[in-house]
């Protein structure tokens, strides 16, 4: 075998390795938040996150995980039979090949959303994906990680989420809304941080200020509590 042929075989043999992702879990449930709330959805949770938010409810996704081929993940979503697929984490964009998964899911005809911390560049995400960008509020402890250069990239197809733990978070979020014209760019979601403020408090503030935002309350936690894989 010539050296050139040997080299080309190596490239072919290595290709499947390049199409792998570290995965914490894949499961079928109802979408618990954002625009697609209530729809049967396949969730693909990627392993790893460079942030450490105080309120994180998916710390089990920080480490471990299993290598899976991207095509296998698309096949599993197809077998699940739900039109909606949510790619989440952790921070899914911390694995660069997440971009390949998103494209392949769109090509397969799924309605795809991506839940991202907003700390990583979203510009290369397939435009068919609805990006749900979680802007980190002060009480998250990770506000400094917000990549503000992502904000002008948002479109009406995307969503911006604020998880609000106290009045200071709320006031900061309102300021961000105004400074960056977020309600004109994308759908804006305000969500109470579980166990920090009551949903009623946040709802009352939104109504009093007549904010152009959508209140949301995590449906999956009302149905199943903190159970992973739900
Ligand atoms: S970005 Fe998401 S997964 Fe990462 S620590 Fe924050 S809440 Fe948890």
Automatic annotation (TrEMBL):
<keyword id="KW-0004">4Fe-4S</keyword>
<feature type="binding site">
    <location>
        <position position="53"/>
    </location>
    <ligand>
        <name>[4Fe-4S] cluster</name>
    </ligand>
</feature>
<dbReference type="GO" id="GO:0016840">
    <property type="term" value="F:carbon-nitrogen lyase activity"/>
</dbReference>
<feature type="binding site">
    <location>
        <position position="56"/>
    </location>
    <ligand>
        <name>[4Fe-4S] cluster</name>
    </ligand>
</feature>
<feature type="domain" description="Radical SAM core">
    <location>
        <begin position="36"/>
        <end position="230"/>
    </location>
</feature>
<feature type="binding site">
    <location>
        <position position="58"/>
    </location>
    <ligand>
        <name>Mg(2+)</name>
    </ligand>
</feature>
<comment type="similarity">
    <text>Belongs to the radical SAM superfamily. 7-carboxy-7-deazaguanine synthase family.</text>
</comment>
<dbReference type="GO" id="GO:0051539">
    <property type="term" value="F:4 iron, 4 sulfur cluster binding"/>
</dbReference>
<dbReference type="GO" id="GO:0008616">
    <property type="term" value="P:tRNA queuosine(34) biosynthetic process"/>
</dbReference>
<dbReference type="GO" id="GO:0000287">
    <property type="term" value="F:magnesium ion binding"/>
</dbReference>
<dbReference type="InterPro" id="IPR027621">
    <property type="entry name" value="rSAM_QueE_gams"/>
</dbReference>
<keyword id="KW-0456">Lyase</keyword>
<dbReference type="InterPro" id="IPR013785">
    <property type="entry name" value="Aldolase_TIM"/>
</dbReference>
<dbReference type="InterPro" id="IPR058240">
    <property type="entry name" value="rSAM_sf"/>
</dbReference>
<feature type="binding site">
    <location>
        <position position="88"/>
    </location>
    <ligand>
        <name>substrate</name>
    </ligand>
</feature>
<feature type="binding site">
    <location>
        <begin position="30"/>
        <end position="32"/>
    </location>
    <ligand>
        <name>substrate</name>
    </ligand>
</feature>
<dbReference type="Pfam" id="PF04055">
    <property type="entry name" value="Radical_SAM"/>
</dbReference>
<feature type="binding site">
    <location>
        <position position="49"/>
    </location>
    <ligand>
        <name>[4Fe-4S] cluster</name>
    </ligand>
</feature>
<feature type="binding site">
    <location>
        <position position="45"/>
    </location>
    <ligand>
        <name>substrate</name>
    </ligand>
</feature>
<keyword id="KW-0479">Metal-binding</keyword>
<keyword id="KW-0671">Queuosine biosynthesis</keyword>
<comment type="pathway">
    <text>Purine metabolism; 7-cyano-7-deazaguanine biosynthesis.</text>
</comment>
<feature type="binding site">
    <location>
        <position position="90"/>
    </location>
    <ligand>
        <name>S-adenosyl-L-methionine</name>
    </ligand>
</feature>
<dbReference type="InterPro" id="IPR024924">
    <property type="entry name" value="7-CO-7-deazaguanine_synth-like"/>
</dbReference>
<dbReference type="InterPro" id="IPR007197">
    <property type="entry name" value="rSAM"/>
</dbReference>
<keyword id="KW-0411">Iron-sulfur</keyword>
<protein>
    <recommendedName>
        <fullName>7-carboxy-7-deazaguanine synthase</fullName>
        <ecNumber>4.3.99.3</ecNumber>
    </recommendedName>
</protein>
<comment type="function">
    <text>Catalyzes the complex heterocyclic radical-mediated conversion of 6-carboxy-5,6,7,8-tetrahydropterin (CPH4) to 7-carboxy-7-deazaguanine (CDG), a step common to the biosynthetic pathways of all 7-deazapurine-containing compounds.</text>
</comment>
<dbReference type="GO" id="GO:1904047">
    <property type="term" value="F:S-adenosyl-L-methionine binding"/>
</dbReference>
<keyword id="KW-0408">Iron</keyword>
<comment type="subunit">
    <text>Homodimer.</text>
</comment>
<feature type="binding site">
    <location>
        <begin position="55"/>
        <end position="57"/>
    </location>
    <ligand>
        <name>S-adenosyl-L-methionine</name>
    </ligand>
</feature>
<keyword id="KW-0949">S-adenosyl-L-methionine</keyword>
<keyword id="KW-0460">Magnesium</keyword>
